[in-house]
Design brief:
60s Ribosomal Protein L30, Chain: A, 20% strand, binds zinc ion, 9 helices, alpha+beta, 236 residues
Length: 236
């Protein structure tokens, strides 16, 4: 993939790379919010952690698995990480570990990696610093109470404002950073498509099953399959 990686970096990520080189967290969080849909403090932590890791490893993504992110949560943090590192769900450079920690590792193919974890004390102290935002969050989201449209609007506004303030908090209080060696799985193999004999839809060959001598997809085979939803990975 060297031919598309110019000395100035990856042309399709020029804007993001410029922001990373300038530590422009604010620019990056608005970029990440195009994907994420709103601004919040965990998006801010993901953007910052992504930026620190990319600079520490000295890498630039071409979106072709030469840099891999291993994300340990499916909360807002992961969208910041994906945007800044360029390692995404769709380009196979994202590995998801379903352990529910606001943490991620960025690693090169040779296994040289850096793991960044949101500091527990820092995280626990957010509620004291932003009491109104967390009061609304606990009531409307955690307890699921029916709030007024004004209350939802106020909550979103407070988290938006909070995320922009968090971008200027000291990194050493916010994160724990470890240099680690990572054992990576081999790069993805492009599987051929085969047709399901029952529904007629194409499927990746590796996901096809044989039922009564016919090639079928998992739903038509009535087989259990993995699903990733807001609760994490489970068997569907
Ligand atoms: Zn969010
Ligand atoms: Zn089928």
């Amino acid at each position: 993939m060297n031919e598309i990686q110019t000395i100035e970096g990856n042309p399709v990520r020029k804007e993001v790379e410029k922001m990373i080189s300038e530590n422009d967290y604010e620019g990056l969080i608005f970029k990440a919010a195009e994907l994420h849909g709103h601004l919040c403090n965990y998006l801010a932590y993901g953007v910052m952690a992504g930026c620190i890791a990319v600079k520490e490893l000295g890498v630039k993504s071409t979106g072709m698995e030469e840099v891999i992110a291993i994300c340990e949560t499916n909360n807002c943090f992961s969208d910041g990480v994906q945007m800044v590192t360029g390692c995404s769900f769709g380009n196979n450079a994202l590995i998801y570990k379903d352990v529910g920690k606001t943490a991620f590792t960025l690693t090169r193919r040779d296994g040289k990696g850096i793991r960044i974890i949101l500091d527990a004390e820092f995280e626990d102290s957010r509620e004291m610093e932003y009491p109104e935002a967390y009061e609304l969050w606990n009531r409307l989201i955690v307890k699921g109470e029916q709030g007024s449209p004004e209350e939802y609007g106020r909550m979103m506004q407070l988290f938006h404002e909070m995320s922009l303030k968090e971008l200027y908090k000291p990194i050493d209080k916010m994160f724990k950073i470890e240099k680690i060696k990572v054992d990576l799985p081999p790069p993805s193999v492009m599987a051929l498509s085969v047709k399901c004999a029952i529904c007629g839809e194409n499927i990746m060959e590796t996901k096809a099953r044989v039922k009564n001598g016919q090639t079928v997809c998992l739903p038509c085979a009535n087989q259990e399959k993995y699903i990733l939803d807001s609760t994490g990975i489970s068997i569907d």
